[in-house]
Amino acid sequence: MPSERDPPAGGYGAGLARCFGLAGAPALVTQLAPGATFAVTRLDCPRAQAGRRHAIPIEDAFLVTLHLRAARRLELWLRGQPVPLRPMRPGSMLILDLRGDVVLRLGGAWDVLGFYVPRALLGVIGLGTVGALASEGGVIDPVLGHLGAAALGLLERPRRPTAAVLRHLATATCAHLVHRYGAREAEEAGDA
User: Fold this and answer.
1) How far apart are CA 100 and CA 36, in angstroms?
2) Among 27, 63, 100, 134, which one is least packed by beta carbons within 10 Å?
3) Could you tell me if 1 and 12 are in contact, meaning their C-beta atoms sit under 8 angstroms apart?
4) Which residues of 96-134 are buried (b: 16+ CB within 10 A; e: fewer)?
5) What is the pLDDT of residue 87?
6) Beta bridge partners of 75
């Protein structure tokens, strides 16, 4: 659980559910160090949310969505500018940098797993300082799909998983994202 010193998070759990007008959302949450919370939240938004704009609070974190259902009409704005997206098929993913004033408009029902990954967590795990995680939206990522299947299994269990299990899920997810989509800060600035 996040400590009282951590800022209230809109990127996972109940905070993320509120962003989408939901009363709640099941989530797996673990804190590996102060400010280094990893979470997986399932957002199952009904058609009633379609057409509404959903702003996610600015944080120094990434939200990686794994789509469990097709989302053909998803609109994204970063820093007030529209970002073109291709249709999201089941198993496709989208990386959102929450520093960028993210706003989504859902064109229909939306069922996703949201992996919440603060930049501080990447350093705690030993993955260094990552400037960006970047991928064209709509890419099918089989590894993230398998990690998502593991998370879904844990979310559906009646008992909460142990801290060790969540720590392993966090480490595997973060290592995969950094290895496949990460850019070091020097690379991002063009110094590499």
Assistant:
1) 19
2) 134
3) no
4) bbbeeebbbbbebebbbbbbbbbbbbbebbebeebebbe
5) 83
6) 105
- Local structure of 76: helix, strand or coil: strand
| 122-to-33, 60, 91, 118, 154 alpha-carbon distances in Å | 11, 12, 24, 7, 22
**In this predicted model, what pLDDT tens digit does every residue of 93-108 receive, in sequence order?**
999 999 988 988 877 7
2 pLDDT more than 60: no
pLDDT for position 185: 56
pLDDT of residue 74: 83
How confident is the model over 49-93, as pLDDT tens digits? 666 778 888 999 999 999 999 887 788 988 889 988 888 899 999
What would you report as the CA-atom Rg of the chain, rounded to the nearest whole angstrom?
16
Report the length, in residues, of the chain.
Answer: 192
Looking at residue 65, its amino acid is: T
Domains and CATH numbers, the chain: 13-189 (2.60.120.10)
Q: What is the 3-state secondary structure (H, E, C) of 81-139?
A: EEECCCCECCCEEEEEEHHHCEEEEECCCEEEEEEEEEHHHHHHHCCCCEEEECCCCCE
